[in-house]
Design goal:
This protein is of the alpha/beta class. Helix content is about 50%, strand content about 15%. The chain contains twelve helices and ten strands. The chain has helices spanning about 5-15, 25-40, 50-55, 60-70, 85-95, 110-125, 155-165, 190-200, 215-225, 235-245, 255-270, 275-300; strands at about 20-25, 45-50, 75-85, 100, 130-135, 140, 170, 175-180, 205, 245-250. The protein has an eight-stranded parallel beta barrel, surrounded by ten helices. α3 packs across α4 (about 60-70). It is globular, with a radius of gyration of 18 Å. Bound molecules: phosphoglycolohydroxamic acid, calcium ion and zinc ion (ZN). Zinc ion (ZN) binds near residues 208 and 209.
Length: about 300
């Protein structure tokens, strides 16, 4: 079933669990998320970035995701992740996305409000949910954000932002970042700030850059030749605490990429005679599916479909 992010996230925030938003860019990743959601009886958000669209095409990706949603008993949404311009937002709404993110976090406050409002006015009449971002995460994104340019979300500005734009969900910056290298030292999130924001805003809050970069995946990848020294993610205890403080949507990309790559390396190393793509990508899909199932259990969304 294809539903909106609002349908999935309002109950999540109210009941204290979070729904995973999993970044996809090919058939295998969509299958991994859809099969995991079915087995866990969990809702799922399937997230597509502009760079995924550039890689695989809007029509291919939206049709693959819609096929997955329509053939599953659980609820799923088709979500644009980190859309940055009105044209991309319009194309995704026209292609049947049920939710769009407008990431104006690189803009000045008033400009971010104006662009976000314009997207809300486009999306809401078509019953499409809108997520916006205030503050700025460091790391690899559509455009890489240097650490010194990262800004944590100001709670009062966030309250003003949501009331003036009418968004359905807000992505906050509380110390996470995109990619596999989130911390040089201890993993630290600003929970006090998150608590203050969620006290002021009762909308579902979104945690980007939430991959945990599990040691077992890094070790498996390294065993078969990957060079990922210094990779570090968000500890699972931090995720649980963030959910208790109002986070209702959690974005995961890096952990799926790592599981995929570690498994492809393992298959190629152990079976040098194999050259059937299905025998290489099939196990990689299974590995991503196990990661997704683990996230659903961690986020508390299992059994909530
Ligand atoms: C993310 C994914 N996508 O929008 O925020 O973050 O790099 O931690 O998986 P990760
Ligand atoms: Ca951003
Ligand atoms: Zn993100």
């Amino acid at each position: 079933m294809l539903v909106t992010n609002k349908d999935l996230l309002v109950p999540a925030r109210r009941k204290g669990y979070a729904v995973g938003a999993f970044n996809i860019n090919n058939l295998e990743t969509v299958l991994a998320v859809a099969e995991a959601a079915t087995e866990e009886k969990s809702p799922a958000i399937i997230a597509v970035t502009p760079s995924a669209i550039k890689y695989a095409g809007l029509s291919y990706l939206s049709k693959i995701v819609k096929t997955a949603a329509e053939s599953s008993a659980v609820s799923m949404s088709l979500h644009l992740d980190h859309g940055e311009d009105f044209e991309t937002e319009s194309k995704c709404v026209a292609a049947g996305f049920t939710s769009v993110m407008i990431d104006g976090s690189h803009l000045k406050f008033e400009e971010n409000i104006a662009l976000t409002k314009k997207v809300v006015d486009l999306a809401h009449p078509k019953a499409v949910s809108v997520e916006a971002e205030l503050g700025r995460l460091a790391g690899i994104e559509e455009k890489t954000v240097e650490e010194k340019e990262a800004i944590l979300t100001d709670p009062d500005s966030a309250k003003e932002f949501v009331s003036r734009t009418g968004v359905d969900a807000l992505a906050v910056a509380v110390g996470t970042s995109h990619g596999a290298y989130k911390f040089k030292g201890e993993a630290e999130l600003d929970f006090e700030r998150l608590k203050t924001i969620s006290g002021k805003i009762d909308l579902p809050l979104v945690l980007h850059g939430a991959s945990s970069v599990p040691a077992w995946i890094i070790e498996k990848a390294a065993k078969y030749g990957a060079e990922l020294g210094g990779a570090k993610g968000i500890p699972e205890e931090h995720i649980i605490r963030a959910i208790s403080l109002g986070i209702a949507k959690i974005n995961i990309d890096t952990d799926l990429r790592l599981a995929f790559t570690a498994t492809v390396r393992e298959v190629l190393a152990n079976q040098p005679k194999e050259f059937d793509p299905r025998k290489i990508l099939g196990p990689a899909k299974e590995a991503m599916k196990e990661v997704v199932k683990g996230k659903m259990r961690l986020f508390g969304s299992s059994g909530k479909a």
